[in-house]
Amino acid sequence: VQTSNGATVTHRSTSSSNGDDSTTPNPTPTPARPPRSKYRHVAAVHSITRPSCLSHDSNATPSFLGFRNLMVIVLVVGNLRLMIENMQKYGVLICIRCHAYRNQDIIMGLMLYFIIPCHLFAAYLIELLAAQQARGSRKRIKEGRTGPSDDDRKRFHTAWTVVAWAHGINITLALALTTVIVYFRIFHPLIGTLTELHAIIVWLKAASYAFTNRDLRHAYLHPVKGEAVPDLYARCPYPANITMGNLVYFWWAPTLVYQPVYPRTDRIRWLFVAKRLGEVFCLSVFIWFATAQYATPVLVNSIDKIASLDFPSILERLLKLSTISLVIWLAGFFALFQSFLNALAEVLRFGDRAFYDDWWNSESLGAYWRLWNKPVYTYFKRHVYMPMVGRGWSPSTASFSVFLLSAFLHEILVGVPTHNIIGVAFLGMLLQLPLIAMTAPLEKMKSGTGGSTHT
């Protein structure tokens, strides 16, 4: 149909499925398109005021995910070039049969592996005798009294003194005997380090076992006036927790802090365990490869530079070694805290698996030390820092004591297996204190309230 102005309008009829010629109205009419301009070169490209994408006055913050991907590509390509250069220069330095070790090292290491846990069982025997004495004292306390009599308190103090001395001698022997044997009898650094680390872990666990049961025993002997005990412990109250099974679970549990009861999961996911153990194996091989292929040549080639005091070359070697060390450290961190401890926790159905927090977002060095190794941090906070603060010591003095003890243990762990006790690890830990003080303002600025963002 042609209209009066010359335009042609076409009417389209729709037939029904049964053959009728009746028309059906369109329920959703198509909107009319705006008329297209005949001129293609006059479009208004710049029609509004807009800042650049990266300007500070931009309305929307762009995503930098592409830059992250680009940096990952650059990192991979750069390290691939270094790997090719290393292979061309040194060849393959991996050699399984080149590692010299003596049969005596293996024999002494295995012997200490079975002897060291005996100190935990000695702590159990001490606590078993103390629990029997506590049961007898509890029976003598009359009903309705807020606590024991003066004579009972004297007996408690005497018993605690004996128990404390017994625990002190036991844990001292656990660390001292192992240290002496490793220093004088074991010369392979890896075997010595694993043995010394085992002794330090048992030393810390035995001390936690003694301190915790001491407080539980005090609360047990003061049923009315005693300090509050966590509700979680009601499932296994003192002295019912002094059993061999309870101790063995604590021995293997991925924690240094003793509790009568831990949160537990319902079942064991064996596929999860297999994946974590596979990660441990692969990362261990990677650490071995990176150490032998990259770290060792850098150290060997640095000896003559240090002897000649070639400071530019020393700085270059130090920066090169720092990169390798960082990669090895990250691989070791993931293998231990994410893979191995999670596998162990899954087998034991250990529920609390906060072995670390987001230390990579630390605002200060102090926050980093609180976040990256939660088992050690919670141990020293519970058994050293908080007891000292509760007895009137200042927080700074308590923190210094924590780092002093940690420095001592680090020096033993590093110096004894390498037969090189020169105080490097000790000073390295103590010097963290001024660095923590220097970076503390950064954490306060981040929190916005002048306090720490982490507890």
UniProtKB/TrEMBL annotation:
Residue spans of biased composition, Low complexity class: 13-25
Membrane topology: Multi-pass membrane protein
Region span, Disordered: 1-38
Keywords: Acyltransferase, Endoplasmic reticulum, Membrane, Transferase, Transmembrane, Transmembrane helix
Entry GO terms, CC: endoplasmic reticulum membrane
EC code(s) of this entry: 2.3.1.20
Coiled-coil ranges from the UniProt annotation: none
Molecular-function GO terms, alphabetical: diacylglycerol O-acyltransferase activity
Enzyme class: transferase
Endoplasmic reticulum recorded as keyword: yes
Pathway: Lipid metabolism
Main location: endoplasmic reticulum
Residues making up the signal peptide according to the UniProt record: none
Residues at the catalytic site: H410
Bilayer-spanning residue ranges: 65-84, 105-126, 162-184, 277-295, 326-345, 392-409, 421-442
GO biological process: triglyceride biosynthetic process
Subcellular location: Endoplasmic reticulum membrane
Polar residues bias (residue ranges): 1-12
Recorded family membership: Belongs to the membrane-bound acyltransferase family. Sterol o-acyltransferase subfamily.
Cited function: Sterol O-acyltransferase that catalyzes the formation of stery esters.
Protein name: diacylglycerol O-acyltransferase
Organism: Geosmithia morbida
